[in-house]
Structures are given as C-alpha cells and as structure tokens.
Design goal:
Shape: elongated
CATH topology of the largest domain: Outer membrane efflux proteins (OEP)
Number of domains: 2
CATH architecture of the largest domain: Up-down Bundle
Distance between the termini: 57 Å
CATH class of the largest domain: Mainly Alpha
Strand order of the largest sheet: 2-7-9-10
Low-confidence stretches: 16-21, 88-96, 117-123
Order of helices and strands: HEHHEEHEEHEEHHEHHHEEHH
Mean pLDDT: 81
Number of strands: 10
C-alpha cells in the first residue's frame, strides 16, 4: 500500500467516525427533552404498562359475569357388551350381570352380556357399540361480589392512571431540573474561563515586571497560585457538568454514549415573572395527584363495605348444553342422552357463625381510617403549599441579590485588574477580587437552582404545566 492509499483509508475512517458521532448527537429543547423522556424513560414505560395491566384486570373481572362457552368430545367403548331389557331367551346366563329398574309398568330387569353368550337378534338385546359424544356447554353465574368487584376494578384503574400521570409529572420535573443545571454549569464555566484569561494575563504581566526588576517575585507567585486555584475550580465545575450530562441521559432513557446539545437558553426557562405568577395562582387541592389518590382510596374503602355485604346475597347461575352422540358400529345404539338441556340454580347463604358480620364491621373501620388519612393529608397539603410558597418567594429574593452581587463582583474584578496593569492596585487586591468572583458565581448557581427547585416543587403540588 502506497502513501496515497494509506491517506485515503485514514480519511475514510475519519469520515465514518465523524458520521457515527453525528448520529449520536441529541439536539433538544426543553420541551423536546421532556417529550423524549416520556417516550423512553424506563419508569414512564413501566407506568404505562401498569395502566394496561389494570385495564386487563378490569376486563378479567367483568368477563367472569359474561357467558362462558366450552366444547368437548367424549369417546366410549363398551368392549362389545349387549344390553338386554326384560325377559327373554338366554336370560339365565345373564342373571349375574342383571339389575332391576323401576318403571311405570313395574320392575324390569336389565342385564349385560357378551355377543357370544347371546345375540341381540335372538334375545332382543341392544348392541352397545362404540360411541362418541360432542357437546357444547354455555353457562353464566352472577353474584353480587362480582358486580361490586367490577366497580372496585374501575377505581383501581383510575388510581393506576393517576399514578401514571404523577410519574409523567415527576419525569418532566426531573428533566427540567437537570436541564437547567447543565445550562447554568455551562454558563458558569464560560464566566470562569473569561476571568481565568484575565488572571493569566495579569500573572504573565507581573512575571515580566519581576524579570525586569520592576516588581517583587512574591506578587507574581500570588497571582500564579490564584490562577491555579481558578483552574481547579473550572476543572471541578467541568466534572460536575459531565456528571449532570450523564444524569440527563439516564432521565431521557437515551444511549449513554450520546452527546447532548441543549438549545433552550437558561434565561428563557428561568423566568421571574412566571415564578411570581405561580405564587398568585392559589391552591386547588383537588388537582393535586396525591389528594386524588386519597379520594380514590376513600371510594375503594367504601366499596369494600358493599363487597363485604355481598356475601349475604344469592348466587344465580344458568346453563345450556347441546350434545350430539354418534355410534361407530353397524347397529345404532340406544341413546338415552337428550341433545338439548337447560338448567338454573339459586343459592343463598344462611349461616356463617358471624364471620360475614365481622367482615362488614372490619370494612367499616377501614373506611373510617381512610377518611381520617384523607383529612390529615388535606391539612398537610395546605401547610405544604404555604411552606413552598414561602420557599419560592425567598429563593426569588436571594436570586435577585446574587444576580446583582455577581454583576458588581465582576465589575470590581475588571476594575482591579485594570488598575493592577498600571500599578494602582496590589496583587493582594487582585487575589481578593478573583476569590470574590468565584464565590459570587458559586452563590449565583445555588440561587438559580434554589429558584428552579422551589418552582418545580410548587408546580408539582398545585399540578400546573412545568414545561
């Protein structure tokens, strides 16, 4: 292989790698990231499956009250025996296998014999040829417990659907929280890189001044230490950013090797006006998913009382059976099975030594406990709303303070570095200014995350759109 062919192969491989990397890039806005998570997140998929399972369970309970139809085929072979009814020739030989049945005409003997002992033509016997019976049976049974059980399954299905919506809400919130964290980290790294560039320029200028005898080495060393400190802070922030990206991929349910490109700017998500409007919305407790689950649990407990009472109700059942019997011998046998048959029954429980009464009383106690839990949870949710409103208001105030502090600290740092260039500021002042800006940026990040966390918590509680 000559050098040109080698270069061509290397270039082709590079293009393939670049194309593969391009395929693994996820460019997502906040809404797109949330929708992607709803479609691929494992917890969300399980919640959807639980909803389907609840629907199937409900249908299983409902189908138990519908007609059940089954078909069957029976084969019988009497091993060549002949059935003889009444007296006749050869009766003495058949007496050991005979029986007496009562008929309107009086007792009548029936006996069985093998063909060699007596022929059916001679004794008037009936040949018992091999036969097959095909049958279809349709039956239905209805109890009060089945009817109430269907109602219970309806409630269970509603609870499963509420849990699915709650999982969807939590998935959206988690994605939004990590999404904003990544954006803030990227913004912070950009600010720190800008400050580092200025600090490195000052350190280089200071070292040049030391080299020509215009400054002391200790001043240049202080700046070098501060440069190293800021680089360490940037590296730590980059590692935190990578951890957040990995967390986002898990939330999305995406390939862990994918690259994320987030297209929604942080200023568009972090809206002080939206957070302020959220505080003015008020709290409609009936929209809260936890409260909705408690309401369904109350209904479930009330239905369980009815279910316990259904043990005192009768059971109704009915059936229809069709039978078609076929003989496989040359002589048609004696078919005593009618082709059509119907039946019905009613059963009523009478005495159970008090167990049914105890079940009813126990169900009533469970219902009272459900009412108490709901009442307590209602008060707790109202207290939680007040606390989350206070937390969001405090977070907004702190965000405003830290935003202004970051702006002032950055201007102070720029001013000090400019003065240092002309010898009107000391290296200590530069060190303090750079330390202040790192601290201010850290406080700003915490303030932003506090606002987002408080806003998401309040949005989830009052159940509003958190996109």
């Amino acid at each position: 292989m000559n050098i040109k062919q080698l270069i061509a192969v290397i270039a082709l491989n590079a293009l393939c790698i670049a194309a593969s990397a391009q395929d693994n890039v996820l460019r997502l806005s906040l809404q797109e990231a949330q929708q992607y998570a709803l479609e691929h997140n494992a917890s969300m998929q399980n919640a959807n499956l639980e909803t389907k399972k609840a629907e199937l369970t409900r249908w299983k309970t409902l189908s138990s009250m519908l007609p059940q139809v089954k078909a069957g085929f029976d084969y019988q072979n009497m091993c060549g025996y002949t059935m003889n009814i009444g007296g006749g020739r050869g009766m003495s030989s058949m007496m050991p296998d005979s029986m007496i049945i009562n008929t309107p005409m009086g007792p009548m003997p029936i006996s069985f014999s093998m063909p060699e002992s007596s022929s059916s033509s001679e004794s008037g016997g009936i040949a018992m040829n091999p036969s097959g019976t095909f049958s279809i049976t349709a039956s239905v049974a209805v109890t009060g417990a089945q009817i109430v059980g269907t109602m219970l399954q309806n409630i269970a299905m509603q609870m499963t659907d509420i849990s699915r919506q709650q999982t969807e809400q939590q998935t959206r919130s988690n994605v939004k929280n990590v999404y904003v964290s990544i954006l803030v980290m990227e913004q912070t790294i950009g600010l720190l890189d800008s400050s580092l560039a200025n600090l490195e320029q000052l350190a280089a200028t200071s070292q040049s001044a030391v080299d020509v005898g215009a400054a002391e080495q200790v001043d240049a060393d202080k700046l070098q230490v501060q440069v190293a400190s800021m680089k360490s802070s940037i590296n730590s922030t980059r590692r935190s950013l990578q951890a957040l990206r990995n967390s986002m991929l898990l939330q999305l349910g995406a390939d862990v090797g994918s690259q994320l490109v987030l297209t929604t700017p942080v200023d568009e998500i972090l809206s002080v006006d939206n957070a302020t409007q959220l505080l003015a919305k008020g709290f409609d407790i009936t929209k809260n998913y936890n409260y909705q689950l408690l309401e369904q649990n109350e209904k479930l407990a009330r239905r369980n009382i009815t279910m316990a009472r259904m043990d005192l109700t009768p059971t109704l059942s009915a059936y229809y059976q069709y039978s078609a019997k076929t003989y496989f011998g040359k002589d048609e046998g004696f078919n005593m099975t009618p082709p059509n048959m119907v039946g019905a029954s009613v059963s009523l429980p009478l005495f159970s030594s008090g167990s049914r009464t105890a079940n009813i009383k126990s169900a009533k106690i469970d219902y009272q406990e459900a009412l108490n839990s709901k009442r307590q949870a209602e008060d707790g949710l109202k207290v939680q709303y007040n606390q989350l409103s206070f937390d969001l208001a405090s977070a907004l105030e702190n965000f405003d303070i830290q935003s202004r502090n970051l702006d002032v600290t950055r201007r102070v740092f720029d001013n000090i570095t400019e003065k240092y260039k002309f010898g009107r500021a000391s290296s200590l002042e530069v060190t303090n200014a750079s330390t202040d800006i790192i601290s201010a940026q850290s406080n700003y990040i915490q303030a932003v995350m506090s606002v987002i966390s408080a806003q998401l918590a309040l949005e989830n509680l009052i159940n509003v759109d958190n996109q």
